[in-house]
Amino acid sequence: MNQATVEFRHVSKAYGPQGAVVDLSLLVPAGDICVLVGPSGCGKTTSLKMVNRLVEPTSGQVLIDGQDVMKIEVTELRRRIGYVIQQIGLFPHQTIAENVGTVPRLMGWDKRRTQRRTEELLELVGLDPARVRNRYPSQLSGGERQRVGVARAMAAEPPVMLMDEPFGAVDPIVRERLQNEFLRLHRQLGTTVLFVTHDIDEAIKMGTRVAVMQQGGHLAQYAPPTELLAHPASEFVSRFVGVDRGLKRMSLLRVEDVRLEPGVVAHVGETAQTARRRALEAESEWLVLLDERDAPLGWVRATDLAEDQRLSVDHVDASSPLVHHETTLRDALSMLLTSAVQTAVVVDERGRYSGTLTLDELGLAFRSEASPESAGVA
User: Fold this and answer.
1) Pairing mode of beta strands 192-197, 21-28
2) What pLDDT score was predicted for residue 151?
3) Measuring CA to CA, which residue among 73, 51, 62, 78 is closest to residue 158?
4) How far apart are CA 147 and CA 230, in angstroms?
5) CATH architecture for segment(s) 256-367
6) What is the CATH number of domain 6-243?
7) Residue 343: left if φ>0, alpha if ψ -120 to 50, beta else—which one?
């Protein structure tokens, strides 16, 4: 894994067009996602831009693996740091492949290596290289362009990535998908990330560490999300985090942290008699119908099956939320509460069936997270 530590040592930036930062000191361990969060004008973006010298500090040091960024030639520095912004900033007259390969070309990679890396990254961010490589940014959706922006930032395998409100310009549904996709990607690659947002929910979901900043450019608290929610350091942090701290802690747990029910399953082409018997033995009225790849197609009511039938998609009756192992419990709860079927079907990263998640299991998780013991309250 290509990753590096980032450290701010008593960094200040005098007030100006870029805003103010006052005596900022924090260490981002290699491989962590550090989220800078706070109200507008508190110095989040200014702090981020001091890492790649788009803004230069008035005093103090910004260090990458112990090396002062002010002593690194600026072009070399920026080629070592991935940078993703809300507006994406793709070159409109270059194809997607050309956009993703920008930094590798500047670094002198040969054409074959650049092409290989481009294809690999497009797949990693969930885009089909054959479909998008020769298209132009204007031919993609906002969410797809944002994925390309992430791929371009990662192209030269940077040890550090800077992300400034990267998912702020897309609708809430696409934003959630991009957040989940990026977290999955980070688990694979482990790059050190500094991530700016004004949204505390996004900060808690995305960060392994959260830096809460307040007006005037001061650091109010720097802690893992669990500590931030359980022990706000000040009245400002407590108000900023919000009164629903127990519910927010559900954003820190994922479906993979909860016990799944195996459920009752059947496959397309299987005899209805066999499937019905299996459901009755499990004392279940419903079973999940899977295709030949074990991907769920929907629910089938066992009592509606005639014994001489073979199961097909025509038998699917009820739908339910589809969640992944990396889906947060808060997102899963929201989906269940708005669904007609209050049991979610869980799939792995390849879309294969893993089990079911019920409101009862989510309730147990919520009560556990909301208890005084888990909150650290005496």
Assistant:
1) unpaired
2) 86
3) 78
4) 33
5) Roll (3.10)
6) 3.40.50.300
7) beta
Return the HEC string of 90-148.
Answer: CCCCCCHHHHHCHHHHHCCCCHHHHHHHHHHHHHHCCCCHHHHCCCCHHHCCHHHHHHH
Query: In 10 A of CB 172, how many CB atoms?
Result: 8
Confidence at residue 378, expressed as pLDDT on a 0 to 100 scale:
28
| Higher pLDDT among residues 273 and 32, named by residue | 32
Alpha-helical runs (H) found in 155-305: 172-189, 200-206, 225-230, 235-241, 245-248, 272-281
Q: Give all strands of the β-sheet with 286-290 in edge-to-edge order.
A: 265-267, 286-290, 296-301
213, 36 in Cβ contact below 8 A? yes
**At 377, is the pLDDT very low, low, confident or very high (cuts 50, 70, 90)?**
very low
Domain residue extents for the chain: 6-243, 256-367
- Name the amino acid, one letter, at 334: S
What single DSSP character describes residue 206?
H
Q: What is the pLDDT of residues 44-55, one digit of tens each?
A: 999 999 999 999
